[in-house]
Write a structure and sequence with these properties.
The complex is a heterotrimer of chains A (about 150), B (about 500) and C (about 425).
Chain A: E1 2-6, H1 16-24, H2 31-35, E2 45-49, E3 52-56, H3 65-69, E4 75-77, E5 83-85, H4 95-99, E6 106-107, E7 114-115, H5 129-133, E8 139-143
Antiparallel strand pairs in A: 1-8, 2-3, 4-5, 6-7
Chain B: E1 9-13, H1 23-27, E2 33-36, E3 41-44, H2 54-58, E4 64-68, H3 81-93, E5 98-99, E6 114-116, E7 137-139, E8 162-164, E9 168-170, H4 180-193, E10 197-198, E11 215-219, H5 228-233, E12 236-240, E13 251-253, H6 260-266, E14 274-276, H7 286-299, E15 306-311, H8 316-325, E16 330-334, E17 343-344, H9 345-350, H10 355-368, E18 376-380, H11 386-395, E19 399-402, H12 404-410, H13 432-435, H14 440-464, H15 470-473, E20 480-482, H16 487-493, E21 496-497
Parallel strand pairs in B: 9-19, 10-11, 11-12, 12-15, 15-16, 16-18, 18-19, 20-21
Antiparallel strand pairs in B: 1-4, 2-3, 5-17, 6-20, 7-8, 13-14
Chain C: E1 3-10, H1 14-24, E2 32-36, H2 48-53, H3 68-71, E3 74-78, E4 82-86, E5 91-94, E6 99-107, E7 111-113, E8 127-128, H4 133-142, E9 148-152, H5 156-165, E10 171-176, H6 188-200, E11 203-207, E12 211-215, E13 218-221, E14 226-228, E15 231-234, E16 238-240, H7 243-247, E17 269-271, E18 277-280, E19 285-288, H8 292-306, E20 319-324, E21 327-333, E22 338-343, E23 348-354, E24 357-364, H9 370-379, H10 388-393, H11 402-409
Parallel strand pairs in C: 1-2, 1-6, 2-3, 6-17, 8-15, 9-10, 9-15, 10-11
Antiparallel strand pairs in C: 4-5, 5-6, 7-16, 12-13, 13-14, 18-19, 20-21, 21-24, 22-23, 23-24
Helix pairs in contact in C: 1-8
The chains are: A alpha+beta (about 150), B alpha/beta (about 500), C alpha/beta (about 425).
Chain lengths: ~150, ~500, ~425
């Protein structure tokens, strides 16, 4: 399946992906209206340390421990390989946050659920917005199946 | 006491649009932008802005623009704002003014005063999408003679040639003045396009030896990075006698740009300014030049064409004649609008002549002396579009060097601050955090796109003229007409005025 | 006539669902029969407190989609219990007397509440456990804003019950023998922080104390205090349902003993979930990890192996994410070794380091990226191979060397 891959060699630590992610998932068509004066809650995160920068978000693991650990059945891996969360079913216990090895399942700002990246399939963008707006090709969307 | 000089440009932020994402702050190596936690707003220090547009380009809400300041001194047609400020600056520092890239002054651009012909009725135009159109060419001496061996078979007497898919090469830009990633982009693009890039006088990084068949290596007055393997790795060798941006002076790479890798590649100490002398200290005559040409040919077993590059100066035609007789295969001429990574402003802006005039005169001179076939002519120094390429070829060039246009394709916004080493686009810098901003996987593709687009346009223009190969266009000045030119300019360019028939 | 199924699963909760998914990852057609004594559609047991809290409802509690059993070709026998396993004939006798033959059997019988002997308990008119949906539904029928509730046990079950009902009753008192609440997952400092939160929501705690005697609607404590109440919830612990395996001759210590393939000592009989033990890599001991994710891991592992695949579950570790009134307590592993502590007014963080390994941690209201710590525990990555200082300060991949990072980030995981 096509997944998001990040390459720290090209990541500039500009954090644009975080804003583009928050915008894509805001449900608002204008970025200024969506983000101005607000704390953003992106599903992708840049880690910075010195000159090293890289983005981390859901890897849509082949064997997703978040899905296995979910106490409510809110997390599932679809036939398309995408790991999704059903916010309606989620009770916000954060077991998924506790087990995700990448720290890519996050507590939602409302405190009542967890949230995670669904490769922009759930927000009408069609393709991952972080990938589209990465200025340096540090985030790509491609297939890297293992032989 | 230092006099305050108002910055030329101002950063204008539309606060209604700014979401304080701080991307501008993170991306400005000059420290223009700053987030103020007290107000939750961004602020800018105009005095640090070089107008490179990195922030403008990356701002996700397009909240930024850079404008020329409207602050002004009392109007004076003679003493313009910049002229006055430069005096202040020099009075402040006592230093020579430094600049980069090409001459920005409003001298006439003769390309823009030349119009191209097209076929109508009596000679049909050619549709390049349906009919063959030859943009391929060879650079080198066209002096092969028909000779046969004792068995009557034809002998190969053709001197070494460079084969190009389009009449375009990437100009000499050294590793040091530009980044590793910029070089990789140029090298990979040259390989994919079937053209050449040029090392400049910075040596050739070990990683790029594999692009050797698309590499022209330079031997300049400092001899930086020159050794046997270097010469052998290349497709051709260029002796740099001069550069259009700074005729008559040598090169200067600031120590700050001499990283470990650059130092190793150039074979010079790290962190110390690299000064290449104005003259080659072993060349004071055409005869001396010939010795170097011959030496390089010997060193590479006469397998590689030798290019001699000069700046376009008043006496260019006579010098070119000498070069043609020195045994060089290709003459490269660099006009006064050519770019540089660093040059004294006064030199850049006031020395040399336009490439259009130099080219027309050199082509004319070599023809009249019957030695035009001894050399190919490559011209550079502000070739800005495919139309400039076509006009240059019609004026007599075989091919064109493009430098500034290539850098623009890589993201350069012509802020002309290369000499500071803090290029926000990852091109003219050696700072690792900045260098990585140019991802060669994208950079090379953009270069390929640019040259491919120009190739299509060249084919289109040639087809319109009813010409289907570069051979038929080269030196075909009947395809050109001047507009807004004086009689002297027309005479020097060897073209008729617009409206004048055959 | 005896029913026969290739795979028989006793129990219908997390481990059973996991086993079905494990079996189907290998064998898409072999018959599966699930025997469950609860009549509800499979639900996540820990959700019952959220049900009372109103965060979820019976519909949304479904652990899998309605078509799960059908989609996976699973036959269900609900409302019956397995009474006996006969390994020699490879059959299970059910409480209704019928028999079911199996090729591979999974025992996922879970656990039941433990009722310690308490004097006078019979005199309490309204007493409850808090383990199942039926428990929650029964409790719900008596909840009212004028009722006083007494919960015996300040562990995970008791306090989640407290959270679920606090707003629906007049008051809740909690008694526990331990000197701090949640002793299985928190140290004293962390427990005190959470206790304050619970108290702010109206709870009263009687710690280091216990009920010496019930007298109708009054509990007499060892300390001499008396607590009047209307509703009693007993949540002092659970006991694994191991009898089926024990009686069939399988090895049982505290729970059913299983190997890292979830096999019991009886051939073709597997066990998973709260009835079975795991080898806890953090403590280095064989013990029951009665936690939902662990049930899934064991069940899935059992399922794959039952169907002839090969799966090992050899990195069991206790971890727990639990919330109280918006506060989040995330814990994992064993609390042994050198402690690295960070405490603010609102947050608490302790990491335990021993033998060059992260052994365990407590995070209160610092949930962000906690999984990086858990992964360190589960993978047993030596701290000397990473930037341990950076990791202590904040969980992130920048603590890992570039090579390790690239191995993870450049390919499918």
């Amino acid at each position: 399946m096509k997944r998001i891959y990040v390459n720290e060699e090209w990541c500039l630590g500009c954090h644009l992906c975080e804003y583009e992610c928050a915008f894509a998932n805001s449900g608002i068509s204008d970025m200024v209206r969506a983000l101005k004066g607000k704390q953003i809650h992106p599903l992708i995160h840049i880690e910075d340390s010195g000159d090293v920068h890289f983005a981390v978000n859901c890897r849509h693991c082949k064997d997703p421990i978040c899905v296995k650990s979910c106490i409510s059945g809110a997390l599932s891996k679809g036939k398309d390989g995408i790991v999704r969360i059903d916010r309606d079913k989620c009770v916000g216990c954060l077991t998924c946050v506790l087990v995700c090895p990448y720290g890519a399942v996050l507590p939602a700002p409302d405190g009542h659920a967890a949230m995670k990246c669904a490769l922009c399939t759930d927000n009408g963008r069609g393709e991952p917005n972080c990938v589209k707006y990465c200025p340096n090709g540090a985030i790509v969307f491609e297939t890297r199946e293992e032989a | 006491m230092e006099l305050y000089i108002r910055p030329d440009y101002e950063v204008v932020r539309n606060t209604d649009k700014c979401i304080a994402c701080r991307v501008c702050e993170r991306q400005c190596a000059n420290g223009v932008h700053e987030y103020d936690p007290a107000t939750g707003k961004m602020r800018a220090d105009d005095s640090k802005c070089v107008n490179c547009h990195r922030c403008v380009s990356l701002c996700p809400t397009h909240a930024l623009k850079i404008v020329k300041t409207d602050d002004t001194y009392r109007e004076n047609a003679n003493w313009g704002v910049q002229t006055i400020n430069e005096v202040y600056r020099q009075a402040n520092t006592g230093g020579v003014l430094l600049s980069s890239m090409g001459n920005p002054k409003p001298y006439p651009v003769f390309w823009d005063k030349l119009l191209l012909n097209a076929s109508q009725v009596t000679n049909p135009p050619i549709d390049p999408l349906r009919e063959p159109m030859e943009t391929q060419l060879w650079l080198g001496k066209r002096t092969a003679k028909i000779e046969r061996d004792e068995k009557g078979r034809l002998k190969d007497t053709l001197p070494p040639q460079l084969k190009l898919s389009v009449p375009i090469l990437f100009s000499a830009m050294s590793y040091g003045s530009i980044s590793y990633n910029a070089h990789e982009s140029l090298a990979r693009a040259a390989e994919e396009l079937g053209i050449y890039y040029n090392t400049g006088e910075g040596g050739l990084h070990r990683d790029f030896y594999r692009y050797g068949k698309n590499t022209i290596v330079q031997v300049a007055s400092g001899r930086f990075g020159v050794h046997k393997e270097y010469l052998e790795a290349a497709a051709a060798i260029e002796i740099k006698m001069g550069q259009g941006a700074k005729p008559g002076i040598g090169g200067h790479l600031p120590g700050a740009k001499i990283s470990e890798d650059v130092s190793e590649t150039r074979m010079i100490p790290q962190g110390v300014d690299a000064i290449s002398p104005a003259p080659h200290h072993d060349i004071y005559s055409i005869e001396d030049l010939k010795q170097l040409v011959d030496s390089l040919k010997e060193a590479t077993e006469h397998k590689k064409p030798i290019i001699v590059k000069i700046a376009a100066v008043h006496n260019a035609a006579a010098i070119a004649s000498g070069i043609a007789r020195s045994g060089a295969d290709i003459i490269a001429i660099d006009g006064y609008r050519g770019g540089t990574g660093a040059a004294p402003t006064r030199i850049r802006d006031n020395v040399g002549i336009p490439i259009e005039m130099a080219l027309a005169q050199i082509d004319e001179r070599l023809r009249s002396e019957g030695i035009r076939d001894e050399v190919s002519i490559v011209v550079g120094g502000s070739i800005r579009s495919s139309a400039d390429v076509v006009k240059a070829i019609a004026l007599g060039a075989d091919a064109c060097y493009i430098g500034t246009a290539a850098l623009l394709a890589l993201g350069c916004h012509l802020c002309r601050s290369c000499h500071t080493g803090k290029c926000n686009w990852g091109i003219a810098t050696q700072q690792p955090d900045l260098v990585k901003r140019l991802n060669p996987n994208y950079g090379y593709k953009r270069l390929v796109n640019l040259v491919t687009a120009w190739k299509h346009e060249i084919e289109e223009i040639m087809g319109g003229m009813g010409i289907n190969s570069l051979e038929a266009l080269r030196g075909n000045r009947l395809m050109l007409r001047g507009i807004g030119l004086t009689d002297t300019e027309l005479r020097l360019l060897g073209v008729r005025y617009a409206g004048e028939s055959l | 006539m005896k029913e026969q199924s290739k795979y028989v699963i006793i129990g219908n909760s997390t481990a059973a669902v996991a086993a079905i998914e494990g079996i189907r990852s290998v064998d898409q057609t072999g018959g599966i029969l699930v025997i469950g004594d609860e009549k509800h559609f499979v639900y996540g047991r820990p959700l019952i407190s959220y049900y009372l809290l109103g965060t979820t409802d019976a519909e949304r509690m479904h652990y899998r989609p309605e078509t799960f059993y059908e989609d996976n070709g699973v036959a269900l026998r609900l409302g019956v219990r397995a009474a006996k396993i006969d390994p020699a004939h490879k059959e299970v006798t059910l409480s209704d007397g019928s028999k079911v033959g199996y090729e591979k059997l999974l025992v996922a019988t879970g656990s039941r509440p433990f009722d310690p002997p308490m004097e006078g308990i019979e005199s309490v008119p309204q007493r409850f456990h808090f383990m199942t949906m039926d428990d929650a539904l029964a409790l719900e029928t008596v909840l009212a804003s004028d009722k006083k509730v007494l919960i015996v046990g300040a562990g995970l079950i008791g306090l989640k019950c407290l959270e679920g009902i606090a707003a629906r009753v007049e008051s809740v008192a909690v008694v526990d023998l331990a000197d701090h609440i949640l002793p299985s997952i928190l140290d004293k400092t962390g427990a005190d922080m959470i206790q304050r939160t619970l108290e702010e929501h109206g709870a009263t705690f009687y710690l280091s104390d216990s009920v010496s005697r019930f007298d109708g609607n009054t509990a007499h404590l060892k300390s001499g205090k008396e607590i009047p109440f209307d509703i009693l919830v007993v949540a002092v612990g659970v006991r694994p349902n191991t009898e089926l395996v024990k009686e069939a001759g399988g090895e049982v210590v505290r729970g059913i003993v299983t190997d890292e393939c979830s096999r019991t000592s009886i051939p073709d009989v597997y066990a998973a979930g709260d009835c079975a033990e795991s080898y806890d890599i953090a403590t280095g001991t064989q013990r029951i990890l009665a936690l939902l994710p662990n049930a899934y891991f064991q069940g899935y592992c059992a399922g794959v192996n039952m169907a002839g695949g090969s799966e090992r579950f050899d990195n069991a570790v206790a971890f727990n994410a639990i919330g109280f009134f918006g506060r989040h307590v995330l814990t994992a592993g064993a609390y042994t070794g050198e402690a690295y502590t960070e405490q603010t007014a609102d947050t608490y963080k302790v990491l335990f380091v021993k033998d060059n390994l992260l052994k365990g941690f407590i995070l209160i209201d610092l949930p962000e990226r906690a999984g990086v710590y858990t992964a360190m525990l589960r993978s047993r990555t030596p701290l000397s191979e990473i930037d341990a200082e950076s990791l202590k300060q904040s969980p992130g991949w920048n603590a890992f060397p570039e090579k390790m990072r690239k191995e993870h980030f450049a390919k499918e995981v």
